[in-house]
Write a structure and sequence with these properties.
Keywords: Coiled coil, DNA-binding, Transcription, Transcription regulation
Number of strands: 10
InterPro entries: BTB/POZ_dom (IPR000210), bZIP (IPR004827), bZIP_BACH (IPR043321), bZIP_Maf (IPR004826), bZIP_sf (IPR046347), Leuzip_Jun (IPR002112), SKP1/BTB/POZ_sf (IPR011333), TF_DNA-bd_sf (IPR008917)
Organism: Cyprinus carpio
Largest sheet: 3 strands, antiparallel
Structural class: mainly alpha
GO molecular function: DNA-binding transcription factor activity, RNA polymerase II-specific; RNA polymerase II cis-regulatory region sequence-specific DNA binding
Protein name: BTB and CNC homology 1, basic leucine zipper transcription factor 1 a
Radius of gyration: 40 Å
Strand order of the largest sheet: 1-10-9
Length: 669
Amino acid sequence: MSVDGPRTSVFTFQSAVHSHHVLRSLEELRQKELLCDVTVEVEHRSFRAHSSVLASCSDYFYTRLTNHSRANPTVRLPDEVTVEGFEPLLQFAYTAKLHFTKENILEIHRCAEFLGFQNLDKACFEFLVPKFSDGGGTSKKVKGKSKSHEKSQSICSPSDQNPKNGEDRVPQDASTVMQAASATSSEETPKDCPPITNDKEMQLDLSTLYARSTEYHMGDGQDQFCLQSCGPQLPSSSMAAAEACPFLSISSTGDNEKLHSSAAGDILAMDDDFQKELAMDVHCEPPADKDLDIASITEGHFDQREGPLMSPTDGSQLCPLNSAQSSGDLDSISGAPDLSNIGTDNNEVFDSNEQTYSELTPKDCAAERSTVEREVAEHLAKGFWPDLSSTLNEPLPLDSIDQSSAGNGSDFHWLKHLDLGAAPDDCPFLRDLSSNDRQTSGGDSLSKEDTEDSPCMSPINSMENSECESDGDCAQCSEQVQEVDLPFPVEQISSMTRRAFLQMLKREQLTTEQLEFVQDVRRRSKNRMAAQRCRKRKLDCIYRLEGEIKKLRSEKEKLLQDHNQLKLSIEDVRQNLSGLCQSLSIDAVPQSEQLQALARYFSSDCPTSVLLTPMASPSLAGPDQDTHANSSLDTFLAGTCPEGDTVALRSPTAFLQDNVQSTDTDPAL
DNA sequence: AACGGGTGTCATAAG
DNA sequence: GACTTATGACACCCG
C-alpha cells in the first residue's frame, strides 16, 4: 500500500560556472602572485602558489602544508621532482588542464605519482604513457607540415601540440599557442576550443568533445593534440562548451526517481516543453532534444528533486567526460551565446541526422579522425562502458558497472549512478565514431539522442517504458513494420519527443502508408502508457483510500473503547451517589418517597456530563448535621457541576420538589 | 464455462 | 487546429 503524501518539489539552482570562475581567479592570482602563501622550490626554480590549491590537488602537498605551522612556508621538493614534470602539474592544479607532450609525459607522470596528484593516474597516464612511450604505437595520422622539432608543450587549450611519431613534430611553443589563442578567442570559451587545422595533419582533438561548441580556433596548420581531462573527478577547468557533456542533460535524479536533474544551466534557454515539465512537476524527463541538451549545458543548473533524488552535483559528476563536473561546473558556457541560439532553432541546426551538430562542428573536425584519436576515444569510453563493442546498443547492467569500476578502484564509483542505457551513444567520444564505424541508420543514433529515457524519468514512466507491448502486439507490430519497411526502429517512435519525431518524419520522407503506421504506433503507444499511468493512479488512490479506511476504523475502535470506559465510570458514579443518598436518608429524611425519587433522578434524569465531572470531595452533611442534609446535597451537586454544565442540571432538591408530595420535609425542600 | 485481473485500444474531454 | 494527457468503456487474454 502506498499512501503518498503531497509531493514537494525542491528546485536547486547550481551555477555551472562558479567553481570555474573561482579556479580561474585563483590562477590569475597566482600569475600575479597575489595571496600566494607558499613557495615551491623545484630544482632551482621557485613557484609561488596557494597552499590550499596545492593541498587540494596533491597528497604530497596536503601532507606537507597541513603539517606546516609556519606562515608562507617554502616547500622544497626533492630531486625526484623536476621542473619539467612539476610545472604542467601546477598548471593543471589551477586550470584542470594538463599540457603535455610525448617527451614530457613520462616526467609528468613520475612527478604526479610522487606528488600524489589526484585524478590523473588512471584517467590519463595509465593509457597515455604506454601509448606514447611505445613510439606512438598505432597508426597515427601523420601528415605534416611541422616547422620545427623543438620541445614544445602541448597546450590542451587553446591550441594543442600534437604528439606525433617523432618526426613531423609540430613546432609550437606554448607561449605561441597562448598568444594565438588569445588573439583568436574570447576570454571564456574560444581559447578552450581546439584549433582546427586546415590541412590533413594529425589532429587528435576528440572533436566530439567540442561538438557543441560553436567557436573553434582556426588553426595555423600545426599539429594539435588535445586530450581534455575526462575523469569524473578532475577539477574544473576553463574548458569551454567543448567540455559540455551531453550527459548533463540526462543526468538526474534520483532517486528516485527522476532527477531529476536536468542540468539546465540557463533556464531561459531551455526548451519550452522542458520548462513546462519543470514547472508542472510532472516528469523529470531529460531534455531529449538536442537543443535541450545544448541548453542544458549552459551555465547553471536547474535541478528538480523529488525524494532522494540525485543532487545536481551528482548529476554533473555523472558525466565521465566532463572534467568540469566534479566541481559542479560547466565551464563554458557562460560565454557561449551561440549555444542558446542553437537551442532556439533546432530545425536549422539539427536538420540532418548524420550531421548532428554539424553546423556546430567544423567539418574538418569530424571528418578526419586518426586511429590514435579513435583509440584514445574508445579507451576513454571503455573506461566508462566496458565491453563497449558488444553492448554498444544495449544498456549495461549496473552489475557490470560495478565490476568494471572495481577494476579501477573507486575511480568510477560514480558510474553506478549513470544511466547506461543511453550512454554509449551519448558519449561524445563515441557518438561520431560510432556513426563512422557502424553502418547504422541515421535514425539509430538520432533516436538514441532523442530518446526520453533517462535516469530522470519518473518511476511511472520508466515502468511504463519498460513494459513492452504484449507479445501479440509485438508480433503484429513487427509484421507491420516489415510491411511498411520503416527505416528506423519502431521502438523509438513512441520514445521520441514530438520535435524529434517530426524531424525524423521530415527527414525520412516516409510514404503515406509508413506515415500512417508510424503515427498510429505513436498514438497507441502514448495512449497505452497513459492508460498505465491512469491505472496506476487508480490503484494508488485505492490504496490510499484503504489506508484512510483503516485509519478511520482504528479511530472508531478507540472511540468505542473510550465510550465503554465512560460507561463504567458512569456506573461507578451512580453507585457512589446511591450510597450517598442512602447515608443521607438515614438521619435526615427517611422518607421512602424521597429516596425513590432520588433514585429515579440519578438513574435517568441527571445529565451524565454532570455526573462525570470529577468528584470533588463534597461537604456532605454528616450524621450529626442532619438538619441540612438536603441543602448539603444541593451544595454537593452544585460543586460537582461545572458552571457551564449546570444548565441541564435539575438538582435533587428541585427534583424532589417536583416529584414528591411531601408535607413534612425540610423547608429547604 | 464462468469469473476476475491485467492490458491494449478507442473515444472523448480537457488543457 | 494539432497535439498530449487523462479517463471511461470495451474487448481480449490468461490463470
